[in-house]
Amino acid sequence: MPASVRFDMPPASRAQVPRQRPPVQNVGGPAPSNGVQFMSYQFGIQPANGEVPSPQRRRPLAARGPLAPPGPAGVMAPPRAAWPAGADRQATQPPQFPKAAQHDADLRLAPPARIDAAHQLQTPVLLNRPFQPSTKSPLELPPPPGGETVVLPLPPVQSGDLRFPINLATALRLADARPLLVAAAQASAWSAEAQLQKAKVLWVPSFMVSTSYARHDGPIDFNQGINVPVGVGIYGQPAPGGFGKPLNQNYNWFLAGVSLYQVVSTTDVIFQPLAARQVLDAKRWDIQTAKNDVVLEVARSYFNVHRHRGQYAGALYTVQEGRKLIAKIDALSKDLIPKVEVDRARNLLAFLEQQSVSARENWRLASADLTQVIRLDPRAVCEPLENDHLQITLIDASRPLDDLIPIGLSNRPELAANQAEVKAAMVRIRQEKMRPLLPAVLLTGWQTPGGMAPQASIFGTGHGGKLNFWSFRDDISAQVVWQLDSFGFGNMALVKRRRGEQSQAIAKLAQAQDTVAAEINQAQAQVQSAAARVVQAERSLRTGLVT
Fold first, then answer.
1. Quick check: 409 and 517 in contact, CB under 8 A?
2. Phi/psi zone of residue 164: left (φ > 0), alpha (ψ -120 to 50 degrees), beta?
3. Model's pTM, two decimal places?
4. Would you say residue 533 has pLDDT above 70?
5. I need a labelling partner for 334 at 20 to 30 A (CA). Which of 134, 154, 352, 441 fits?
6. Helices and strands (DSSP H and E) totals, the chain
7. Strands in 142-287 per DSSP E
């Protein structure tokens, strides 16, 4: 229903009246303190259900009833309450307007006390409907005539460049096969595996094949350890007046045989394989860490190539548009635009050309980084085959850190490698604690170490330059030895050393955990910033295309 509001309007000409709509104000509120003159008034009443009538649902003109007659000078007739009492509302009868002398020059609302209760303004009922932007809003920009995207030609490759087309899938495959960082980590794992194999066979004795020759000059010893005295023959018979054997008597000794040799500590046999197993696990986790680092580096380098290549294409496009702008300004400068605007446009074009050169440099640098990581021809200039607006979303940007940090701490391979190093340090501590309690086992030949190593050999001896006495002999020695290094103080020092290594491993693990948490925080910030920049870039692109 129409609002029953009375406006006092002094007569005024069309040229003196400002053209603006009256402010919508509840008649029950305070009266305004200032007035504005208006030429015409028109109120659009919306139905209570909030629907805007469409042309198909409009009622015929004959079914709407009599219309209010138009006022003079285009002024709409006031509502029904403003008509004089008893007036016949016919289309041929003009309305009665108040005189200008009875009112001020300002437009004022009638005081609330003068308005009848039946003529109060009825406030529409609020609708519980979701907000929907108007499709006819003047603030909403229309779509550009050429679409919402700009198709830019790819930047050209110069004559000295080696063009190398590549896509993301190929780059990631090469990240696992060619980088030297992964090869170095694999070599470290092979070395650790060899150390584990060696530790597993510490209890197995060594097999030796040896030969030795010895010559002795001077007095010799018999089995009794008595030298040949003066007056005694070589075989012990009395030799009165004899001077004994000469001091420079020569003697030859030859051995050739085989033996099983073993000198090992029992604590090493037990605990060293356990520690080597943990070291191997750490090195294997390092391989996965290297692969993850290489994949991340390849992805970063690849998308850097994407970004700088796109910036270079955009820079070339702006240079072309800048040249067109200079031509247009130069053509208009004769009559409409001052000469200084031409100089400004030329300075802008020079700046854009510098930006294009820098963009090409960044593209070449990013391409060189990518070829270095995946070991391609260093002369190659990588050209991504995907579009420059390629987006790959792995993790939702709205996911909180409370969910991401536990996932990272439980799945990062470098943390598993550090945990394995801590376990290896704990095993070494137990190894040094048990060293004084567990014996060392020695399985050697005769007078070894440092003597005859063969346990089964062919033995030959003789005087002078002869070896005329040959025989077979065996010499076996088995020992079990308990040892206290430096009377036990050396063992205490070894235990202290292993505890220090364990503390270092624990500190390294804690540092790795802090690093992982910080990297997750940084990655989330980068993802959120990238998502916001994408929205802003799309908005800027659409605005730029329209304007």
1. yes
2. beta
3. 0.63
4. yes
5. 352
6. 7, 8
7. 162-166, 206-217, 250-265
Tokens of 515: 């690093």
Nearest to 472 by CA among 454, 496, 490: 454
Query: Position 256: which residue type?
Result: A
Q: How far is CA 317 from CA 151, 164, 305, 352, 360, in A?
A: 10, 23, 18, 10, 13
Confidence class of residue 179 from pLDDT cuts 50, 70 and 90? confident
| Alpha helix segments (H runs only) across 250-338 | 266-332
User: 300-346, pLDDT tens digit by residue?
Assistant: 999 999 999 989 988 998 999 899 988 888 888 777 878 888 888 89
- Residues 367 and 302: their CA atoms lie apart, in Å, by 8
Give 80-131 pLDDT, tens digit per residue: 444 444 444 444 444 444 444 444 444 343 444 444 444 443 434 444 444 4
CB 314 within 8 A of CB 152: yes
Length of the chain in terms of residues written: 547
Scanning the structure block, which residue is given the tokens 């800027």?
540
d(CA 428, CA 4): 96
Report CA torsion sign: 241, 246, 250, 255: positive
Question: What pairing do the DSSP bridges indicate for beta strands 440-444 and 206-217?
Answer: unpaired
50: DSSP letter? -
Lookup result for tokens 């290594």: 501
